[in-house]
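Q: I'm building a small set of examples for a reading group on sequence design. Run inverse folding on the following structure and report the sequence directly after it, with nothing in between.
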């Protein structure tokens, strides 16, 4: 879903905002199309050091958009992606870290935060992926996205 830019201008996060994002159950991660159109997606998030960690299927649209630009905007959201009208929106940089199997500490951080919910959702996803395999379709691996605060170069 493409969404217009938020009414609150995005800026570099304060320490308090960054902490709130890391503690939130869900965040809105907005990536950008080549046209500049903003595309928000609700995701789970965990802290790993000062970085925020997200997991997503490797074939997701956000991964494709991140290959073009690592620019993202973040805000806290509900499970259904609802962002409060007075919510802060911050700019950040996101990189594709790689397959989740190569980032056990990131996976451990997500498992620790989301517990049964994480395991349950991924188990359902694996069952659906096995159906793809039975049809001869390629499987989609999960990858880790690493989100950091913007630097002067960003």
């Amino acid at each position: 879903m493409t969404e217009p830019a938020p009414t609150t201008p995005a800026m570099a996060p304060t320490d308090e905002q960054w902490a709130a994002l890391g503690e939130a159950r869900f965040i809105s991660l907005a990536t950008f199309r080549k046209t500049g159109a903003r595309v928000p997606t609700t995701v789970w998030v965990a802290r790993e050091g000062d970085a925020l960690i997200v997991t997503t299927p490797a074939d997701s649209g956000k991964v494709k958009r991140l290959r073009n630009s690592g620019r993202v905007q973040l805000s806290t959201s509900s499970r259904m992606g609802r962002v409060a009208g007075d919510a802060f929106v911050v700019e950040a940089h996101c990189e594709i870290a790689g397959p989740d199997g190569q980032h056990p500490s990131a996976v451990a951080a997500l498992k620790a935060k989301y517990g049964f919910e994480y395991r349950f959702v991924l188990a359902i996803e694996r069952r659906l992926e096995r159906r793809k395999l039975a049809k001869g379709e390629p499987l989609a691996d999960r990858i880790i996205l690493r989100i950091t605060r913007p630097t002067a170069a960003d």
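Residues 15-148 form a domain with the Pnp Oxidase; Chain A fold (CATH 2.30.110.10).
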